Structure to design on (809 residues):
DNA sequence: AGGTGCTGCTTACCT
DNA sequence: ACAGGTAAGCAGCACCTG
């Protein structure tokens, strides 16, 4: 029989002495299908003398009574050279690692006797190996040929697969999406689940175990045990393909698992009818539900989206506020406790709980296309993709390419290697000190994808570095002793080149489609995936934990980058243009000719520069602005880099680096600085700005400013006990700890400065423990409002005394 | 005891 | 568990002054 299905999930199991790959999928009609494939895990061995090594390995495994299937000899590319490898086929899932450990004894470099040099690819998990070798992407359609099979798995039918291939198909099958969320109540340090909500298309439910006159979507059960049982029942009945949570990996599922084990409830949520498991990852474990895709949106938002978000906090409330324009129902923890303990307003609590699931569902609806597209681009399962960082996405993309091109994948560095790598640093981008003060008519030019373009243009790749062609016949890296081959294309560089080309094609196709059409949207998510991967590769070169680590490559990218931005500045000045500022790949120019039009001068300059630039390097116009301000440094003489504000012809502000965009400044000071910038940049209304500051101070002194606008956010970047210096956020966190609250590494401390005795730190209090009455207005005037305002106003010669109206004149 | 000025720890930003 | 370049606040300390 032959079946076509959309791949959802895959894993590997041991059945007797066999290794089986399980593919879980969905047919176009919506049937659940499982395909099982026999699989032989394998890894590669590089040896001085492959024939001799083969014998030695066989003898060694014989004496250690380790079973393998066979050893083949095979040619593979290692760092640009074709070499002969031994391909060792194993029997069971973990055998590649185990057998590799045995063979390690034959490595000469470890003092062994044999001719083995190194082993490769022994850590790639079997299901990933299978997908890589069969050229199957993370979320794509496959066609499987095989025999029908009886299984105990939760599927409409199963198939013992013989053949598999990926098929190109645009449409998705009917996928069922379900989101969930829990509310907990802490008692003697133990979390109890008091409520659980679920949200799907035409489905909403809240489970709880206290009675009231509830909405019809609330189901009252007897107790927590029954709540958990009901949860399992609903999952199996509704049978979602994608289960979505917000923080499910680190909160909901750990709590659910803990309570389920306490109450002896079996958490059989998976389609393999086994209990839910956590798979270990770097920082936190992930809750894996076999056969379904558990997407924890927090991971994706935190790893991929957060740099592009405005919000200070990555809470469900803040993120959905920004992305959906919808917020949680307002209810603080105290209210929640009271609702539960005193049965007060329990209805509101059910609505609150349900709303969380609704928001999670809607966020999933918005973000899932990007996750699935990314999964297709990178070629890993959506479960894995949704939890990856930029570096990991780049690495798995390269891994897939390497397998395609029969190249050996470099080994993950050992811990000592990582430590050693971290000791090397190199020079990065060039930053020009800005011309001080206000400027009119600024054009911002920047290099399109500077580092990816450099990698592609100059063939920057680990194997092309300092090639045998010699310096003179190659691309020489300015200001360094490195060069890159002009003859043979490198692996990483050609991959980046392909990414850029594919993206350009997609952008062309996008131009031919309607802006609001589905096709346009699909093309857009696809080009964004390619952009993310391409941009991550430079960082990956310099990342000590990366398989394709190459410090010289990263260093060369930066060196070329510095060369071209400096050249651009020089050329601009030669053409009589004023360069106000430059940072890494951008250049701010001002038109010094009052009689000439800026846009024409810019066009002329861009044409001039682009005709000289090599390869695919291109300088483009990012935008024009009618006015901009650059601010003096606080701590040293001169003008500050990376801190400025621009205003365009529609009076839109672009603010970078200033207090306005920093979360460790209170909202009041940030909003005030934005207002001052608007007054100044729009029409230089200095007096109005001063008046505004004075009014704000007055409001503050009258306690008319809410506490939330005085809150400062700062992250604990390490364990609380390891701080050498107790700053305000650390002091506030210490107080939280003493008051019995949970304090953890990575958490965002929300605090405000109160009046009283001692240093600022001593007066920093967690906001949850204080009211507006406790606030030290003087601190907020002197350390927040005045500095934020003066930063801008000092450019217009406003002094502190003038600002506060304390001057006698 | 209280002020002053420097250094280093720390965070968050820019590209 | 992504890089280097940069600004800036506050603690902590040495030192000075009276």
């Amino acid at each position: 029989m032959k079946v076509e299905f959309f791949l959802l999930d895959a894993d590997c199991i041991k059945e007797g002495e066999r290794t089986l790959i399980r593919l879980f999928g969905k047919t176009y009609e919506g049937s659940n299908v499982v395909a099982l494939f026999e699989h032989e895990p394998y890894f590669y061995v590089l040896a001085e003398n492959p024939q001799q090594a083969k014998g030695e390995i066989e003898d060694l495994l014989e004496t250690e009574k380790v079973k393998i299937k066979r050893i083949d000899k095979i040619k593979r590319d290692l760092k640009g050279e074709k070499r002969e490898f031994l391909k060792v086929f194993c029997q069971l899932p973990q055998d590649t690692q185990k057998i590799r450990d045995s063979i390690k004894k034959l490595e000469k470099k470890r003092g062994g006797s044999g001719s083995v040099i190194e082993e490769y690819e022994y850590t790639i998990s079997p299901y990933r190996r299978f997908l890589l070798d069969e050229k199957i992407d993370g979320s794509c359609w496959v066609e499987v040929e095989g025999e029908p099979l009886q299984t105990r798995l939760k599927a409409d039918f199963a198939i013992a697969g013989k053949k598999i291939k990926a098929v190109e198909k645009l449409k998705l099958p009917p996928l069922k999406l379900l989101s969930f969320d829990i509310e907990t109540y802490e008692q003697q340090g133990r979390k109890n689940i008091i409520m659980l909500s679920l949200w799907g298309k035409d489905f909403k439910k809240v489970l709880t175990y206290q009675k009231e006159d509830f909405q019809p979507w609330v189901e009252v059960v007897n107790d927590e045990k029954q709540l958990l049982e009901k949860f399992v029942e609903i999952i199996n009945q509704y049978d979602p393909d994608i289960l979505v949570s917000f923080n499910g990996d680190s909160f909901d599922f750990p709590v659910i698992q803990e309570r389920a084990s306490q109450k002896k409830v079996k958490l059989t949520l998976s389609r393999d009818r086994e209990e839910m498991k956590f798979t270990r990852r770097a920082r936190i474990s992930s809750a894996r539900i076999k056969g379904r895709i558990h997407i924890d949106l927090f991971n994706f938002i935190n790893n991929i989206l957060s740099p592009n978000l405005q919000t200070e906090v990555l809470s469900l409330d803040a993120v959905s506020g920004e992305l959906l324009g919808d917020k949680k129902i307002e209810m603080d923890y105290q209210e929640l406790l009271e609702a539960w303990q005193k049965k007060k307003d329990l209805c509101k609590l059910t609505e609150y709980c349900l709303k969380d699931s609704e928001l999670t569902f809607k966020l999933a609806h918005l973000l899932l296309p990007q996750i699935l597209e990314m999964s297709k681009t990178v070629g890993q399962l959506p479960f894995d993709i949704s939890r990856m960082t930029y570096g990991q996405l780049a690495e798995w993309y390269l891994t897939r390419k390497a397998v395609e091109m029969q190249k050996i994948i470099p080994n993950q560095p050992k811990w000592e290697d990582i430590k050693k790598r971290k000791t090397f640093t190199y020079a990065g981008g060039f930053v020009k000190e800005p011309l001080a003060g206000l400027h009119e008519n600024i054009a911002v030019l920047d290099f399109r994808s500077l580092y990816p373009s450099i990698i592609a243009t100059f063939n920057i790749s680990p194997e092309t570095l300092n090639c045998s062609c010699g310096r003179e016949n190659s691309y020489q890296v300015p200001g360094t002793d490195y060069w890159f081959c002009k003859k043979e294309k490198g692996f990483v560089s050609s991959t980046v080149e392909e990414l850029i080309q594919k993206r350009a094609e997609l952008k062309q196709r996008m131009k031919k489609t309607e802006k609001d059409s589905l096709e346009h949207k699909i093309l857009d998510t696809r080009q964004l995936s390619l952009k993310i991967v391409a941009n991550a590769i430079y960082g990956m070169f310099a990342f000590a934990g990366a398989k394709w680590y190459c410090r010289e490559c990263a260093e060369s990218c930066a060196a070329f980058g510095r060369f071209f931005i400096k050249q651009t500045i020089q050329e601009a000045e030669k053409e009589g243009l004023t360069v106000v500022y430059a940072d890494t790949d951008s250049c701010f120019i001002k038109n010094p000719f009052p009689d000439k039009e800026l846009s024409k001068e810019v066009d002329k300059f861009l044409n001039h520069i682009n005709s000289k630039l090599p390869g695919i390097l291109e300088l483009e116009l990012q935008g024009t602005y009618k006015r901009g301000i650059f601010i003096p440094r606080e701590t040293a003489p001169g003008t500050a880099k990376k801190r400025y504000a621009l205003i365009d012809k529609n009076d839109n502000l672009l603010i970078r680096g200033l207090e306005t965009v920093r979360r460790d400044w209170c909202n009041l000071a940030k909003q005030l600085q934005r207002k001052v910038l608007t007054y100044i940049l729009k029409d230089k209304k200095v007096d109005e700005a001063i008046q505004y500051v004075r009014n704000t101070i007055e409001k503050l002194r009258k306690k008319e400013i809410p506490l939330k606008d005085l809150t400062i956010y700062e992250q604990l970047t390490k364990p609380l006990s390891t701080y050498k210096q107790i700053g305000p956020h650390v002091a506030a966190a210490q107080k939280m700890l003493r008051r019995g609250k949970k304090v953890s590494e990575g958490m965002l401390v929300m605090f405000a400065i109160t009046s009283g005795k001692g240093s600022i730190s001593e007066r920093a209090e967690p906001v949850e423990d204080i009211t507006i009455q406790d606030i030290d207005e003087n601190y907020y005037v002197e350390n927040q409002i005045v500095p934020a305002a003066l930063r801008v106003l000092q450019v217009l010669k406003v002094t502190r005394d003038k600002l506060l109206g304390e001057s006698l004149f």
Observations:
- Residues 346-378 of chain A form the longest helix (33 residues).
